[in-house]
């Protein structure tokens, strides 16, 4: 008797069919449980640690970060801010692009409130052929008071220019979109106007043994997981210690 006729006659599945049905239900249930566990894990991982959490990094040295190095970086925020965040980054680095929203949020909150000064150091890596032109583009935009808008644009559009044989026309287009003088920016890039200061920034990274990007310090505390959650928690801990 076929399965359909058996079910019609008895209202029950055959033992073989019942086992298959139970196996399907168990597999489905296991899949649902797996998804729920994954969602819970992702939620837990992305929660900001408490300001007193033992998981937060601490300073490995009592010596403060040499503030004299800041002159070769690009700064924003109050000069007397109690916290200084220093970022070493490469515009062609994918991890740096992922960190960029945290930097934007930092500027919109703690920097704007006068609690943090942010200093950006260029660290274009040799394996990224367009990292130096991008660093030049941001520094050249700074001549037109648009360093941070250009930085945001470079990260947002990273996938568009990173593989170009000549990224300068793309950078000029971004300048136009930002309301800048694109011809001036292009000339600035092509003449390597700011290459010396970028090389000095690279020199700072070598002195303090920074070789990967992004590397982020909150005062003299090096973050182990650069991102908004850990950065915010360390900032809050440091601020609470100064109150």
UniProtKB/TrEMBL annotation:
InterPro entries: Thioredoxin-like_fold, Thioredoxin-like_sf, Thioredoxin_domain. It comes from the Bacteria. The keyword Isomerase does not apply. Keywords: Disulfide bond, Membrane, Oxidoreductase, Redox-active center, Signal, Transmembrane, Transmembrane helix. Pfam families: Thioredoxin_4. The chain crosses the membrane at residues 25-45. Residues 47-180 form the Thioredoxin domain. Belongs to the thioredoxin family. DsbA subfamily. This is DsbA family protein. It comes from Marinobacter halodurans. The lineage of its organism: Bacteria, Pseudomonadati, Pseudomonadota, Gammaproteobacteria, Pseudomonadales.
């Amino acid at each position: 008797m076929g399965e359909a006729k058996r079910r019609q006659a008895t209202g029950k599945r055959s033992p073989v069919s019942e086992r298959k049905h139970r196996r399907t239900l168990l597999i489905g249930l296991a899949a649902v449980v797996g998804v729920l566990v994954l969602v819970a894990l992702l939620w837990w991982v992305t929660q900001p640690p408490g300001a007193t959490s033992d998981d937060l990094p601490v300073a490995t040295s009592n010596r403060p970060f040499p503030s004299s190095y800041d002159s070769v970086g690009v700064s924003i925020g109050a000069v007397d801010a109690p916290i200084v965040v220093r970022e070493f980054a490469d515009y062609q680095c994918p991890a740096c692009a992922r960190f960029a929203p945290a930097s934007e949020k930092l500027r919109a909150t703690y920097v704007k409130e006068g609690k943090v000064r942010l200093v950006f150091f260029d660290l274009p890596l040799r394996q990224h052929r367009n990292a130096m032109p991008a660093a030049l583009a941001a520094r050249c935009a700074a001549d037109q008071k648009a360093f941070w808008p250009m930085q945001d644009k470079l990260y947002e559009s990273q996938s568009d220019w990173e593989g170009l044989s000549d990224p300068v026309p793309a950078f000029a287009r971004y300048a136009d979109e930002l309301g800048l003088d694109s011809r001036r920016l292009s000339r600035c890039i092509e003449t390597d106007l700011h290459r010396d200061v970028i090389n000095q920034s690279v020199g700072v990274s070598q002195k303090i043994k920074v070789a990967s990007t992004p590397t982020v310090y909150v005062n003299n505390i090096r973050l182990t997981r650069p991102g908004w959650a850990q950065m915010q928690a360390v900032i809050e801990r440091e601020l609470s210690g100064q109150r």
